[in-house]
Amino acid sequence: MSREDEIATLVAAAKDGDVRAFESLVSAHLSQVRRFARAFAASEPDADDLAQEALVKVYRSLGSFRFQSAFSSWLYSVVRNAFLDFAKSRAARERLSNEPLLPEHERALEGGARPDEGLAHEDERRRLWRALREVPLEFRSALVLFEIEERSYEEIATIEKIRVGTVKSRISRGREALRRALAEQEEAPGPLPLREPGTRAAAASSHGRRSGS
Asked: 1-100, which class in CATH?
């Protein structure tokens, strides 16, 4: 059975209420969803809660999955919308303004290596995630998907339901916003702790080939 057929079988079973089938569908994406949530939550415990709420929304939305894109792209689209809804809420604004970012909130999440683990020091990772939360929402999502989750331009366009050119524009503007946020944290912020565009282009091409773009 091909991976596509396996996913189709699991989706059908999950739509019929098979919780184990749903767990099998999302198990490979759990750490990524939790990591993605960090850009929208004030602390790691909050990110865990937000990721769980997003996955509940994925489960409830399974009936809308029509195989018009890869399951992973559809899942990220639902998760992204859940995160954006939360970030726009009054409760989120209050928690982000009142809750300090503690060192233990910024420890590495379980579930495998992360692209941001290449940063030289833990304080740089903390600084990056703190600054990411200052990037406007419309740019933050595309920036995190591209730089942290290593999704291709084409897949992000599918997830966010926008054109590839708009994706590139949002990433560019997100980088500028991130630079400003980092500069506000320190007088001499140093280089932007993200991959160089040339490196990302190769990664994007690789993702495009894997997803059949």
From this structure: mainly alpha
Give the CATH number of domain 117-213: 1.10.10.10
Look up the pTM and report it.
0.72
Q: Count CB neighbours of 35 within 10 A.
A: 22
Annotated domain spans of the chain? 1-100, 117-213
**What counts of helices (H) and strands (E) characterise the chain?**
11, 0
Q: How many CB atoms lie within 10 A of CB 153?
A: 24
How many other CB atoms are there within 10 angstroms of residue 76's CB atom? 27
Instruction: Please write the tens of the pLDDT for every residue from 70-100.
Output: 999 999 999 999 999 988 885 555 554 444 4
Classify the C-alpha dihedral 25-31-32-38 as positive or negative.
positive
